[in-house]
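Dear Dr. H.,

I hope your travels went smoothly. While you were away I took the liberty of generating a structure for the chain from your last submission, since the lab meeting agenda had it listed for discussion. I wanted you to have the full record in hand beforehand rather than looking at slides cold. The sequence, exactly as received, is reproduced here:
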Amino acid sequence: MKVKTDFLVIGAGIAGLRVAIQLQKYGKVVILVKRTLPECNTYHAAGGISCVWSKEDSFEQHKKDTMIAGDGLCKEEIVDEIIKDGPKRIKDLIKWGIQFDKMDDGEYDLTKEGGHSQRRVLHVKDLTGKAVFEILLKKVRSFSNIEIREQNIAINLFGQDNICRGVYVLDKETSTIYSISAKATILATGGVGKVYMYTSNPDVATGDGIAMAYRIGAAISNMEFVQFHPTCLYHPYAKNLLISESLRGEGAHLIDQEGHRFMEKYHPQLELAPRDIVSRAIDDVLKRTGNDYVLLDISFKDADYLKKRFPGINENCLKYGIDFTKEPIPVVPACHYSCGGVLAKTNGETNVKRLFAIGECSYTGFHGANRLASNSLLEGLVCGYKCGEFVGTHVAEFGKNDLEFPDWEEGHAVDPKEAVVITQNWEEIRRVMQNYVGIVKADKWLKRAWDRLNLIHDEIDQYYWDFKITSDLIELRNLITVARLILKCVRARKESRGLHYNLDYPEKSTLIRDSVVKYYW
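The corresponding predicted structure, in token form, is as follows:
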């Protein structure tokens, strides 16, 4: 089967849905979703969207906070552009029906989170991502020229002469492989969380867009800057359960298992320090004490207020026998966000023609070396809009969508007989990354990781060519690709900056540069 469309969007989080809404004005849109809606990082985003809204705040203050968190690698003009466009994009959501929380006087209830100098985070209780996702999806479904294909996973981008023409796709329900050709292909595939043992991300976060873009020749930048959220629930049966930053924004204390607060030893902003500092502080406490977790305590606040303000956290904690209104929550840092990705402009343009990247899978220079809390939904919203407008108004310049895709060639591939190989390699990649390429690095650990990941890569590559394609194999191949990209960037940065901390290079270099990796055919 061969499908043709005007615009192909891979991924359906905030960036993917927002770009589709914009693109539908200019032609037919196909959205690929590799599992089912709403499996994406956006849906699980608990905190909120940062935006200059109150009179006490200003674009300049938000920009300053963003650039301080970014630790020298934010591009000032990009930060300025995204922050100034934020209120317009928030007004779109309000117009479409989102109900951000309000105070008794009718004004929006703005939260202050780590690294912010002002209250500027709009939220819907602690379920903001879910609310944003549902509003955008409702809007998408109101357009007849947007088609959503669930259970369809992209395998490889296809192109010639540095021009992306579309993608090969595995339909998971029929196990058939087909092609989609498009005038423009937009990657909105999210992050890389599943490359680590502990992550707040859903299972779909396997770095698919970044890996595919790399294989077709797109530049990949600053993958060493992986943000670990300081507080994910530590429980043997809990999976990917984020304890929102907003809890600390409302006054929660981090304490060790002896009941002592410890953040005063690490930063004057205490629990509201930037995430990289809080994560390293917890990591240090765990290594010094030998404990598996620390505690997050807000039980000293009114129980009724906590249940009303944080219904999601309350419900999820109770599932595991924890009443956070009466006792502290056991937490551990977990991979949360990739600040690096496909090198792109705010309109999504990459160095590969007709290939665009937006949201977490991209690197625009907005976040720099560390993302400010609640800036991710802002970037996805703004860049989704900008990409849609740019692609839609320039599509006539892209050329015809007339290249004939060759059929997918299976060759002598046979049905996979050893699923355990995929499971074992998956677990080993995550364990190597967690132990050697985590919050704190050292050259000897990185060398060990590089040697091991190269062996795993060769094994997976051979498996890929010998056996028929499955969704698990596609994700595993992408996972080892992004793991090696992270490691390449980590080993190239001989300093400590933002989210990247190396014991062998503890100081910040005077040379400010981005890490860039590109695959050469």
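Two observations you may find useful: DSSP finds 14 helices and 17 strands in the chain. The chain has a mean pLDDT of 95.

With kind regards,
E. W.
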